Amino acid sequence: MTDSHDHPRVVEPPLWEQWAAKSAELPQGERLQKVLAVRGWGSRRVCEDMISANRVTVNGEIAVLGRRVDTEHDTVEVDGVPIGLKPGLVYYLLNKPEGVVTTAHDPQGRPTVVQLVPEEPRVYPVGRLDQGTEGLLLMTNDGDLAHRLAHPSHGVEKEYLAEVEGAPGQGAVRRLREGIELEDGMTAPAKVSQPSPGVLRITIHEGRNRQVRRMCEAIGHPVNRLVRVRIGPLRDAALAPGKWRELTQAEVNALVEAASEGGRPVA
Ligand code: URA
C-alpha cells in the first residue's frame, strides 16, 4: 500500500500494543500475572486469564498480558479491589520477650505469643523462636503467606544477634560462613560477622530447630543470649520487648516479594 506521495505506508500496531510491548521490556517491575499469583489470586494461568478477561487494572487502566508493574508505586486492582487488600487479613510484628513460648496453646501453662497480640481475629506465629530467644516474630491469619514464608525454598533471610561464650576466632567464624555439620546435616552457608568480641551477627535462611544455637555450639561457643533482629525486609529496633504493631502495606508488599524470590515457581 502507498500513500499519495508513493511512500510505503507504515502500518503501526495499535497504540496499546506498542505500549504493552514497551512496558514488558522495562527491566524493573514484575510481570503482572506473577504479582497476582504470589498474592494468592490463583495460579499464573488463572491470573493470565483474569488479565485477558479485562478484570485487572493498573493505575485505573485495563491491563494487558505481559505488563510489568512496580508494586511500590502502581495500584493494581482485580474487579475494582486493590490486590494488597485481602479483607480480614492482619499482619503483626511482635518483639517476643525471653520466656514466652511460640505456640497457640501451651499445655504447661507458660505464657504464649498469642497472649501478647489481639485475640480477634485469631493469628498464628510464622515459624518459631525458642522460649529463650527474643526478637521479631511475624504473626498473621494469612495462611497463604505464612506457608510461603515458612517454606525453606523461599529462603527468606533471618538475622540474629548472638551473644556467645568467649570470642570466636576467624577459623570458627569461617566454619559458620561455609556451612557446618549438624546432626541433621550440613547448614547452608551463612552470613556471619562479629561486631564486637563475643557478639555474632548471623544471617540464615533455613529454619531448622534451634539452628543458631546448635551452629554456635558446634564451633565451641554456646549462645548466652539470642535475639532475632530481622525477618526478610522487616526490622524494628524501636519495638520494645512484649510489644507488637501492624505491618504497613509497604511492608506486607515487601514480604510478599521476599517470599516469592528464589522460591519455587508459584503454581
Ligand atoms: N535459632 C535458634 O537457635 N533459636 C531460635 O529461636 C531461632 C533460631
Automatic annotation (TrEMBL):
Q: Specify whether Acyltransferase is a keyword of the entry.
A: no
List each copy of the RNA-binding S4 domain by range: 30-93
The record's Gene Ontology biological-process terms are:
pseudouridine synthesis; rRNA processing
The Swiss-Prot or TrEMBL record annotates one GO molecular function as: RNA binding
What do the Gene Ontology cellular component annotations say? cytosol
InterPro entries the UniProt entry points to: PsdUridine_s_RsuA/RluB/E/F_cat (IPR042092), PsdUridine_synth_cat_dom_sf (IPR020103), PsdUridine_synth_RsuA/RluA (IPR006145), PsdUridine_synth_RsuA/RluB/E/F (IPR000748), PsdUridine_synth_RsuA/RluB_CS (IPR018496), RsuA_PseudoU_synthase (IPR050343), S4_RNA-bd (IPR002942), S4_RNA-bd_sf (IPR036986)
Stretches assigned to coiled coil: none
A matching Pfam family? S4
- Keywords in alphabetical order: Isomerase, RNA-binding
Q: Of which family is this protein a member?
A: Belongs to the pseudouridine synthase RsuA family.
Q: Which PANTHER family does UniProt cross-reference here?
A: PSEUDOURIDINE SYNTHASE FAMILY PROTEIN-RELATED (PTHR47683), RNA-BINDING S4 DOMAIN-CONTAINING PROTEIN (PTHR47683:SF2)
List, alphabetically, the NCBIfam families matched. pseudouridine synthase (TIGR00093)
Tell me what this protein is called.
Answer: Unannotated protein
- Source organism: freshwater metagenome
